[in-house]
Amino acid sequence: MIFICEGSGHIVIGKNKYPLKRGMLFYIPPGIQQTIEPCVYDPGVYKPEHYMTVHFSGARMALGPDGEWKYQENIKNLHQPLAQKIAAYTPLEELFGKLLDTWDGKGQSYEFVAATLLRQLLIWVTQNNIKQSKNQAISLKIDRIIEYMRQNINKKITLEELSGIAKLSTFYLSREFKEATGYPIITYFNKMKIEKAKELLIEDNKKVKETAYELGYTNEFYFSRMFKRIEGISPKEFYSKNVYEF
Fold first, then answer.
1. Cβ 193 vs Cβ 153: under 8 Å
2. What's the mean pLDDT when you consider all of the chain?
3. Helices (H), the chain
4. Does residue 92 share a domain with residue 78?
5. Is 233 in the same domain as 161?
6. Cβ(209)–Cβ(222) under 8 Å?
7. What are all long-range contacts of 119-124, with beta carbons under 8 Å and residues at least 24 apart?
């Protein structure tokens, strides 16, 4: 495994070429050739390559059919991508540093301590992969929800309806949506409606009542209150202000 602390060059793993960037983690399976291609160092333009590596192999004891324990070389590849960007890489960088310091220091029981740190590093990487995969899946669901809102801007949408589309509980969807966008779901949808209302009022020269109905509001006074709560001014004031300034 190679963790990039700084760099501007490239690394070739097998037939694949990847840029060297801070926070990148590379996994080189057994028997795969790799080459690091550094950039020509130019102060103020490129930073010299700085990376940490750990080379390891594994073995296991397996109970054979005859009831005896047998030593087996374990050369299976890890379930790990060849290259990935680690978002919050500080804990990984610290684990790499501790592992290398332990191995280089050759202190008491350093091999045991290094093996323990290596296990911690591999566990962290595995858990981080699961977390990043989960975050990506949630992000795709939220993108789908926002696109659904955009396509149904003239309708009334409920949290339960969106929950069904995302196939998530209303509680979980609400929490993840707010964490990703900074707004509760319905508030976000209302803001989308008001942004569309501003476009209709100015660009299409729609009346307040027409705008309200076009966006699915059956009561123009409720629409006006919603507009003022979000924008700080009424639709009529917004129209007058922007037409005057224009």
1. yes
2. 87
3. 90-105, 110-151, 159-166, 170-181, 185-202, 208-214, 220-231, 235-245
4. no
5. yes
6. no
7. 120/95, 121/1, 121/54, 121/92, 121/95, 121/96, 122/78, 124/91, 124/92, 124/95
pLDDT at 88: 84
Q: What six digits make up the tokens of 93?
A: 């960088």
Please report which confidence band the pLDDT of residue 76 belongs to, taking 50, 70 and 90 as the band edges: low
pLDDT of residue 47: 66
User: Domain residues for 134?
Assistant: 86-145
Tokens of 184: 């509760």
- Give the largest CA-CA distance in the chain: 92
Q: Find, among 219, 148, 211, the residue nearest to 185 by Cα.
A: 148
| Both structure tokens of 56 | 């390891």
Evaluate if pTM is beyond 0.70: no
Averaged over 239-246, what is the pLDDT? 70
pLDDT reading at 91 higher than 70: yes
SS3 72: strand
If you count them, how many residues does the chain have? Answer: 246
Query: What's the pLDDT tens digit per position in 117-138?
Result: 999 999 999 888 888 888 888 8
Q: CATH code at 236? A: 1.10.10.60
Query: Which of the listed residues 145, 168, 195 is the one where a domain comes to its end?
Result: 145
Tokens of 222: 């409720």
Q: Kindly report the number of other CB atoms within 10 A of residue 62's CB atom.
A: 11
Q: Are residues 120 and 164 in the same domain?
A: no
Domain boundary residue among 41, 64, 85?
85
Specify whether the CB–CB gap between 124 and 91 falls below 8 A: yes
Domain count, the chain: 3
